[in-house]
Write a structure and sequence with these properties.
mainly alpha, MetI-like fold, 2 domains, 11 helices, about 0% strand
């Protein structure tokens, strides 16, 4: 009896110690993050203004802005989302719900997991050879978006598969018992319940893509650009233009790198302000994902 009490006390001691260490680790991380964010806002907040958002880069720090950078980031991210999300979600659904479990699918799963850890510069080199030289898309928004789509595609596939795998089989069996087909079960039951996890994986992937620099530099993004891409709306029939896909571009991380590399303190303050904007864009994407998850869950509940 005495040995059991000692054993219980020993377990409680190590449990308490682990909780303290975990709490301290979390606290240290939060303090460091808060300190970095406070320093960033202290330096960059005074530079945030309407002019900063609507001005092109300039050799004069006071007149420089991020118009071409944030527009380029939005367009590149749009191409990335349009390419990676449908392909990644479809691949995840197929591998989890339709593909047979054999050596081929095991090999595919291993390769997808390995691709998620490949350095981003490798995807840039792949995009340079495939999209710039082979398909001759040039150093364009389309090339940059497809390069980032390759980067986040494994993450989207893995997130989709994990979310679908978490759905209990009883839901599928109940659907089959009511006479539903495989696709009807996936469409009306599996996908709605797994939407939250799928969206989380997509947003994590897009959040990584919006801050990537190496693949974008590799495919030829400009460090200084004083014009905007071609407008997507045209005055001629069919009133929609896709010429902007093949225009040169820059993005927020490259603009920030360009300013940070300059010795003048004013340009470094501009980089801090651009960092605040980049964080705001990321938080906005997460907010949209949370809202969409809430709407889906509310719909499922009722």
């Amino acid at each position: 009896m005495e040995d059991i009490k000692k054993r219980i006390a020993h377990i409680k001691f190590w449990n308490g110690l682990f909780q303290v260490v975990g709490l301290l680790s979390t606290f240290v991380g939060l303090v460091l993050l808060f300190t970095l964010m406070a320093d960033l806002f202290t330096d960059g907040a005074p530079r945030l203004s309407y002019k900063f958002f609507t001005s092109f880069p300039s050799r004069f720090a006071e007149e420089a802005g991020i118009l071409s950078a944030w527009v380029g980031s939005c367009l590149v991210l749009l191409v990335t989302a349009c390419a990676a999300i449908p392909l990644g979600v479809a691949a995840g659904i197929y591998l989890e719900e339709y593909a047979s479990k054999n050596r081929l699918t095991d090999l595919i799963e291993i390769n997808i997991a390995n691709l998620a850890g490949v350095p981003s510069i490798v995807y840039g080199l792949l995009a340079l050879g495939l999209f710039v030289y082979f398909f001759e898309f040039g150093e364009s928004i389309l090339t940059g978006g497809l390069a980032l789509a390759l980067l986040i595609l494994p993450m989207v596939i893995m997130a989709t598969r994990e979310s679908i795998r978490a759905i209990p089989n009883s839901i599928r069996e109940a659907s089959y018992a009511m006479g539903a087909t495989k696709w009807q079960t996936v469409k009306w039951h599996v996908l709605p319940y797994s939407t939250g996890g799928v969206l989380t994986g997509i947003i994590i992937g897009l959040s990584r893509a919006i801050g990537e620099t190496a693949p974008i530099i590799t495919v030829g993004a400009l460090t200084f650009i004083a014009f905007l891409p071609t407008p997507p709306v045209s005055s001629d029939f069919p009133f929609i233009s896709f010429k902007w896909l093949f225009d040169p571009f820059t993005v927020m991380p490259i603009q920030m790198f360009n300013w940070v590399s300059r010795p003048q303190k004013e340009f470094q303050l501009n980089a801090a302000a651009a960092g605040i904007v980049l964080m705001g864009m990321t938080l906005l994407m997460n907010g949209v994902a949370i809202y969409i998850r809430y709407k889906f869950r509310k719909k499922i509940k009722w």
